[in-house]
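This part of the workshop introduces the protein records we will be handling. An example says more than a description, so a record of this kind follows:
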Amino acid sequence: MLKRIILFSIALTAALGLHAQGIPNGSFWFDGMDMYKANVLPVGLIQLSTTNSGQKVTFELTPLPGSSGQYTMFNPADINDEKIDDFVMQVEEDGREMLVVYRDNKIYKLFEKTDKSFHEIVFERWLPTVDGKFMATSPDGQIVHAVIADWTVTVDGEDCPFQAVTRPNGHPFDVLNILTGPVKGVWYLARTVDGFNAYRSEIGEDGGIKIVEEKPWVLTWEDPDEPRWSFLSTEFVIPTFYKKSTLTLMRNTIQAMHGYVFTDRKLNKYFTAQPWYKPVANNGSIHLNFIEQMNIARLLAEESKPDAERRMVTEEEPGGKKK
């Protein structure tokens, strides 16, 4: 199995034109949720350790003999404490250095090397996922138009600055604390396929979020110039929160942004109806950047997981009803 993974990964790496670098002692690596620090031991073993989640988690990387930038990795969080040696390839493209972790021929995890603080990179990744132009419908049918961008919610032309609300480990809740204006207050944003359900909430004494109004405002994407998932071209996705049908839509949106012409009737009908979609004459002329290619691979991997393993899905139906 490991041999097949290695051959698959080398082929992908060659196609992307990537090249390996060493893992410096003391360097920092971000996996989308936590920051890890590298500790290179004298025996050659490399430990990536974090305490961001409240407890110490360590991944152990062992260099493959006769290779450069290739490792096996022991994941201590594997189910039933079963030791599974994942394959890791260190790559660099478009100025971003990554550790790409493969399991069963699929991208399982990504670590990105960074010189930024945990706070900086967390918010750099999070903000693009909430930014956009939305039609907001209240529970009683009131409609306003909202633009979320640059730490500001603009509601029907009125700028309302907001702050993020963070967990004890410094990672943001999907919560906007809007400081002024007609929608002033704390709002929890639950993901939907085309926007968010925004629940009026409050911050508890323990720092947790409590929803105080059961019926949400429904935020529906309405930007004619770009799709709901446009950030997938510039930021690495965390796919665990979304339903499989949405993962499929996200994955195909990446190609649609480049004008890919779909032979699948359902996809062709959906994207042809989008005002931002501009089909190309030849799909062979399309070039996806490194982040887009990695995101497609990660979304495919998440789609293939059994439902029993997808315990972190939080996506809701518009209006608050879950499937």
